[in-house]
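Deliverable D4.2, example record:
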Amino acid sequence: MKIPRVRTQTLRATDPETARVAGLLGLDRSFVGAGCLIDGEHILTCYHVVQAANRDKKPDLKTTVRVKIIGMDGQPVVLARVIKLGAYARGKSALNDLALLKLSRSFNIPAMEFATPLRHGGKRYSVLGFPDGDPQGRNASGLLHAANAAGLVQMDGNSALFVKGGFSGAPVWSEDLKAFVGIVVRELFDHGVSWCIPSRVLCRFYNDLPVRFRIPPSDRPTVHDLDVDDPNLDLFGLLENNRQRCLTAKVSWDHEEERFVVEATYRRLPGSPKPRGRYVTFITYPGFGRKKEDSYEMFETVSKNGTASTEFYPAEGFTIAAIGDAGDTVLTLNLSEIKDKPDGFE
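Output generated by the structure prediction step:
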């Protein structure tokens, strides 16, 4: 499908947590579910929502649906074609209940970012959906739980309206992270419970989805003894090479600043899967980060060849962690064990 010249329409600046919501329309133009506008050309939604939009006919790569972009002036209705489907039809697994759509028009919209938190549990969420085909849409909110055995994140509602049919495919916003954390996939309306597919799983389906691994202040371990406690070891263990990615570092002495400088590099190994999520989060000892930066959340973009690097200024040998692939890759390096380090770096 040829994409026409980019249009001038853009998303509204207010309420970004709902501006990215798209409504999927059935053949009678009623709302059957939702999706999220992940960039100017693509919608991410659920397989079963696309199926509902086509009167329960199983979708394929020729299927087209109408979507309403609610965050734009005039709320244009655009035709979209399925370009990728999860393996939902083979086993009805909710983790595979995904579909990627390509719009027949392109818009001047930046890529939508998601987050994978260290812990989902206890964080607030809000989501906009179209229950019972309501074109106005309704907001629901509540608290997230940790991922269950299947990998879905449970959402317990505590607002006047619970998540129900018509919310599937909608992006889930977490106010505590100021980011999206997944898309709605299932619900038990009578119990006020629903589930979302978390960001790291979405990123396995669509590798180019921007996802940052996050450790907000509420999730960070307490350092009781600066000489003993190492948050990275407590959280991630010690593994610098998992045969797909590796973490290396070089220590040097900055004569002008009179301090040690560490350059850490996260690298994709030859023959391994392509990087996912666009970002790597480097995490080091509190106070060792760069000026005015958070040592728990040093974000770097992954290059096309699968590498990302950062610099920081340690006071002594400690550890650095690198979390990539939307949270699926966890590496930790003990700086004191680096070879060829300068004198005085212990």
